Amino acid sequence: MDIFELPKIELHCHLDGSLPLSFIKEELGDEGIQKEQVQVQANCSSLAEYLQKFKLPLASLKTEKSFERAGYSVLAEVRKENVKYIELRFAPMLSVSETLSCRQAIEGLVAGLKRGEREFEIKANVIVCMMRHLSLEENLEAIRNAREMLGEGVCAVDLAGDEAAFANGEFKELFEQVRKWDMPFTIHAGECGSAFSVKEALELGAKRIGHGIALRKDWELVKEVAKKNIGIEMCPTSNLQTKAIDNWQEYPLIDFVKAGLKVSVNTDNRTVSNTTMTKELELVYQSSNQDEELIRQVLQNALETSFASEEVKHDIGKKMGRILK
Prior knowledge:
By secondary structure, this protein is an alpha/beta fold. It is built from 15 helices and eight strands. The protein has helices spanning 21-28, 47-51, 55-59, 64-78, 102-119, 136-148, 172-180, 195-204, 219-227, 236-241, 253-258, 277-287, 292-305, 310-319, 321-324; strands at 8-14, 83-90, 123-131, 154-160, 185-189, 208-211, 231-234, 262-265. It is globular and about 50 Å long.
């Protein structure tokens, strides 16, 4: 199986962590920026160290035009490895200023993705992230603007940030509004060792779980998640770098698939983690003794659990039919 040539789907990819180094240099007007400033090293010791690499990428996203260029730049990169559909997520409120509104940030990114879609054989959508450390009012501002563009470049919302410091259960009021507006959503959960975090995300109504590694601590909960066909967005390289898991031998992806979970494979942060969908799938392929059926299954899972419209799913499915059979 030629992993590089496979048509691919990515559901968990952060904009700021996936900006090409050339884009960051150009936006900040600093050709002296080195890749080590935005990319973790092999000896990364923690999530805190990992998050330090986002300072410069975030600084490069300050105008509507920069968001437009950012979206286009990411699509220009992912199409090189035959990605056919991607959901790119970001937190617009982290870039809001006196000169940039939440709506402008979203519109800029959507415009860049639309330009990329026209030029490349790819489909893309935006997931708007709410952040745990922000106020209720700020997060409501994010989802209000996301709702106004739902189906017009935005496909869903997400809750991200430090789940150890801000439990999912604290955001019931926020998700009441999300459900009232009938918005699909995913939640980062189970990345920091708590299976209960995943349980709370399910109680809030999440249709997908970001990372979900801690599910390996509660196999009864795994059965519940499988029964509900909840998508599990796994990001192997990132999870190893942030020490969400100690080593690959403990990584539960294959066990999750065997248990019936709708696991997809993703990059999380292409630039920060120095990875691609090809690298992630190759890692899974080699560690499973080159199990081609496993690769087909995770790609099929990605298609089924994506927030794309049924029309787009059908179109992408036809393009991927050769490998999904």
